[in-house]
Design a protein that fits this description.
single chain, two-stranded antiparallel sheet, Butyryl-CoA Dehydrogenase, subunit A, domain 3, mainly alpha
Length: 595
């Protein structure tokens, strides 16, 4: 108070103030301001106020900075979409993790975002941010709990439905073996399903605990599950009771199965034995069947009988496979059936023998009876060799010492054609021309009316097999001639596409010279050597005229090229001379004639 009084006295006693009072001056504002600002009290008060304001701002900034700890909550508010979460997650762990996080966020918001912070004359308001984030957290908590309620409700319904299915499937087993095995299968599936439901019940207990942990103040019981305070607990208790009833039912069913096991095992062993005996009987029938073991049986009839045996065998194998599946279901040993392997081994040999006789007979009739010039001789020879090799392997499977009439007949039929393989290959040479066939038929007793259509059987009937060496000689000549003619044709084609390269001589437009003759010379020398080699071949006799024609052509080309190059070299040499100025001056007429 004393300080203020002293400052007031100082102002009143100031000369400028007295003049202003007496009306001597009117422009007093700046002067009074200077008087005030120049006072010590003003300066002290100003500094005090500034310091206080800075301290207040710093205090509020520290309070506001705490809001940054809720940045993750704000980001969640901006980006989280519950529908997306619902589409991607249906497991309790994910839901629980989110509920834990949301609950922590509630405390985080309360501790770090205050509705209003004041300090002196300054204040900071966080009410809107706090309300927005708190409301979003509560909303998502509600969504998560509702979603968890729906999952629990669905799991409870599925579990109850599964227990009803188990009760319905556990009927009394029928008297048949198939029904008993089916009942055992159903029983095992029901046990597995019961275990799954028991696990589901544990998950329901966990869901109940989560809902209880995160229940709101306005929610009773276990989070309002099912619309009632004890609805979830009631469903879980009922489910536990139903699981106990089903366990008792499964135990009773297991005892029933155990009581009937011995009788059904005996029945199963009996049926397996019956099928084994059937297969053994089929093996014996195949080995003693006159139809399958006599070579005189028509192939079609034998194959039909074999198909009947195979059908009966397949039926037995199908039943044996079914019985082995029964053994696996009943956890019984399922030994292999050796009779099956034995039948397959014997049937494969017998069936293939008759297939060979049928197909090879058809092929032989076609090879011998149809126009030979339309036949593929190489394919015939390859097929015959393949069948002969196959029959040798089959003999090893049958047994070297075992006499098999059908195998012997098939071997004889194949060997009958195989002994003509060389003849067929020679006659079927694709290089054979009309002139060669004339030579072939000259070996026969009666030539055919036409060389375009005749059968191999006709050739055999004319005794052609007695002239195999001559036929092979004619065929070899045909092949040799064809090879030479092919070579000559390739040479002709090469020269048909060969072009001489010429260039303009200096700056003239009507004078050219040949160049790049190295490759031409190499090609010419190679072709001349090839033709000379062909001329020395023993197969050239009947085509000598064509080969000699190309020998002459190549000689002409060689002579022409040599003369051309000699003339070109001489002309280019003389052209330099006759174009010299002194020569033109001395021999003007000769120079003019040269160019």
């Amino acid at each position: 108070m004393q300080s203020v009084t002293e400052e007031v006295v100082r102002v009143i006693s100031h000369q400028d103030f007295r003049q202003f009072i007496h009306g001597l001056i009117s422009d007093s504002g700046p002067r009074f301001r200077a008087i005030v600002e120049g006072s010590f009290a003003y300066a002290t008060s100003k500094a005090t106020i500034q310091n206080r304001i800075v301290q207040d701002f710093a205090h509020l900034k520290r309070k506001v900075d705490k809001c940054e700890q809720c940045a993750d909550i704000n980001a969640f508010d901006q980006t989280f979409v519950f529908e997306d979460f619902q589409a991607e997650h249906s497991d309790l762990e994910s839901i629980k993790m989110h509920l834990d996080r949301l609950q922590k966020w509630e405390g985080k918001i309360a501790n770090n975002i205050k509705p209003l912070e004041t300090k002196g004359l300054i204040w900071a308001q966080g009410r809107k941010l706090r309300e927005r984030l708190s409301q979003r957290v509560k909303t998502e908590q509600g969504h998560m709990k509702e979603y968890l309620r729906e999952l629990a409700e669905r799991k409870a319904r599925e579990s109850s439905t599964g227990l009803i299915e188990i009760r319905n499937r556990l009927k009394e087993p029928a008297d048949t073996l198939a029904a008993y095995v089916g009942y055992c299968t159903e029983l095992e599936l029901c046990r597995q399903k019961k275990e799954h439901i028991a696990e589901q019940k544990k998950r329901l207990d966990e869901m109940k605990g989560v809902l209880s942990k995160y229940k709101g103040k306005d929610e009773g019981g276990y989070g309002g599950f099912g619309g009632g305070s004890g609805a979830l607990q009631g469903k879980i208790e009922q489910l536990a009771s139903d699981i106990s009833d089903v366990e008792a039912l499964l135990q009773q069913a297991g005892e029933t199965v155990k009581e009937a096991l011995e009788g059904n095992v005996e029945e199963l062993e009996k049926r397996v034995q019956e099928e084994q005996e059937k297969v053994s009987a089929l093996i014996e029938k195949i080995s003693k069947s006159e139809t399958l073991m006599q070579a005189s049986t028509p192939a079609k009839e034998a194959l039909e009988e074999a198909a009947r045996y195979k059908k009966r065998f397949d039926n037995s194998v199908e039943r044996l496979a079914q019985y082995q599946a029964y053994q696996a279901t009943l956890k019984l040993p399922a030994p292999a059936v050796p009779e099956v392997e034995e039948f397959e081994k014997q049937f494969a040999v017998r069936h293939r023998l008759w297939q060979i006789r049928q197909t090879f007979g058809e092929q032989q009739r076609r090879w011998y009876g149809e126009n030979f010039r339309d036949q593929d001789a190489a394919a015939i020879v390859a097929t015959v060799a393949e069948r002969a090799t196959e029959l040798v392997k089959m003999k090893m499977a049958i047994g070297r010492e075992t006499q098999d009439e059908v195998h012997a007949a098939a071997t004889m039929e194949v060997q009958d054609v195989k002994r003509h393989s060389a003849l067929i290959a020679a006659l079927g040479n694709p290089s054979m021309q009309e002139k060669h066939w004339v030579k072939i038929w000259a070996l026969c007793e009666t030539p055919p009316a036409t060389l375009l259509n005749f059968s191999f059987q006709t050739l055999l009937s004319q005794g052609i097999d007695a002239h195999l060496e001559r036929v092979e000689e004619v065929s070899a000549f045909a092949a040799g001639e064809a090879a030479i003619l092919k070579t000559v044709s390739e040479i002709a084609a090469a020269w048909e596409e060969t072009a001489f390269t010429v260039r303009g001589y200096r700056d003239t437009k009507d004078r050219f010279y040949i160049t790049e003759v190295e490759e031409l010379t190499i090609q010419l020398e190679d072709h001349q050597m090839t033709v000379q080699t062909s001329m020395g071949s023993k197969y050239v006799a009947e085509i000598r005229e064509e080969v000699e024609a190309w020998e002459k052509r190549l000689g002409y080309i060689s002579d022409c090229l040599d003369e051309w190059l000699i003339f070109q070299k001489a002309w280019m040499y003389l052209e330099n001379i006759f174009n010299a100025e002194d020569i033109v001056a001395q021999l003007p007429m000769e120079a003019k004639l040269f160019v």
